[in-house]
Structures are given as C-alpha cells and as structure tokens.
Amino acid sequence: LSDIAARSAGADMEALATDVAALADHIRTHIETVGLDRALSDFSAPPWTREANGLHLWGVTMSGMSWFDAGHPGLVGLDVSGMTDLTGVFWSDSAVRSATGDGAVMFGLLYPHPRSERAARGLHTCFLLDDGQLVLCAGAFEDH
Known about the structure:
Blueprint: H1 2-6, H2 13-34, H3 36-42, E1 56-61, E2 66-69, H4 91-100, E3 106-112, E4 119-128, E5 134-141
Antiparallel strand pairs: 1-2, 1-5, 3-4, 4-5
C-alpha cells in the first residue's frame, strides 16, 4: 500500500478513486489493529503527508465540527458545516451522507490546488466510527 502514498494520480480520476478507496480500506484495518489515536498519528506523518494535498485523512462530527484534518490542521475544532467547495457543495454534509449511506459513497469536491492555485478536483469517501458521532474521510486531489 505504500506505493499509493508515493505516487501521483495526476488528473486521472479513476486512479484517484482507486487510491482513495485503498486508503479508506487501509485506515479502517489500521484502526482495528492499533486503535484510533495511533492510526491517526501514523497517517499524520510521512509518507501520508504528501505534497500537493495528495492522499490525506480528515474528519467531521455528525453536526459538522472538524475533529481531525491531516491536510488542514487549522480547521480542527471549527464548525465547518457552512463551508463549501468552489461549486457550493457543503463538504461536511457530503461527508456525513457518505458515511451514513444517505449520499454518494465517493463524492467530488473542487478546491484551489495548493501549489498551482488552479481549481483541482478531489474525491473523498467517508465512514462512521464506532461511537456513531465521528466521521472519518479518506481523500485526495488531482495533482497539477
């Protein structure tokens, strides 16, 4: 699995979807093996902190509070329920709906790329943790 942390999917959305699904499966297994705190710590360090906002984990509560974000730690503790991507999609709502089965299993978002500042498409998939309140998402944005 370490190969997905090291490579770029570029603008290939099929490759990006495959990587995001693999990351989500891997983090679920890793949480079961080592526990949530250790798994989050492991995925907040290289090779999982990738240039160009590549594969990353982020989480919201069922009410839209950010509780974990490896790519944007400044969001943690904030109510992000009113934040949208460039197209007006409420991303925390999409995360909750993905996790509960009320929306798309894998959903897209559009944000400025951190390096090029051009709009970049991203894919994300989320699942509900055992406490029934925390949603954890695997995501990645295309590299420009």
